[in-house]
Design brief:
mainly alpha
Length: about 120
């Protein structure tokens, strides 16, 4: 049984309203889909900025700690400034830099010996 009563062939009232309802539904669906896509993109952007913020603050903290260590500030002071629970935590972060300091000290000693030997020969 048809949902609309039979009308004359030249009558477009029923057809027009059917298309209008369909058009409204598709526009509303499109608007809703567009809003959802925009909100998902916003969420992705916020998450990316949050991750970048965490990385920047992490790098800034460790850059400060490394620079303080190279300025020969005591690890206890660095630990307190970083808010670590103990000096042991700070020292685990600074361990790789100890090797670099030892390498630099060795280079300075070798350079001094080379200069001394070349001064004696000349």
């Amino acid at each position: 049984m048809p949902s609309f009563p039979k009308q004359a062939a030249n009558s477009l009232v029923t057809e027009t309203s059917q298309y209008f309802v369909f058009f409204c539904r598709s526009v509303c669906s499109a608007i809703l889909a567009k809003c959802l896509i925009i909100n998902v993109l916003r969420l992705i952007i916020v998450i990316l900025f949050f991750i970048a913020f965490l990385n920047i603050t992490y790098m800034a903290r460790h850059t400060w700690a490394t620079t303080a260590y190279y300025c020969e500030i005591h690890p206890g002071i660095i630990s307190e400034a970083m808010g670590h629970s103990s000096i042991t935590v700070t020292e685990t972060y600074l361990k790789p830099f100890r090797n670099k300091k030892i390498d630099e000290a060795n280079r300075q000693v070798v350079d001094f010996v080379k200069r001394t030997i070349s001064g004696l020969i000349a």
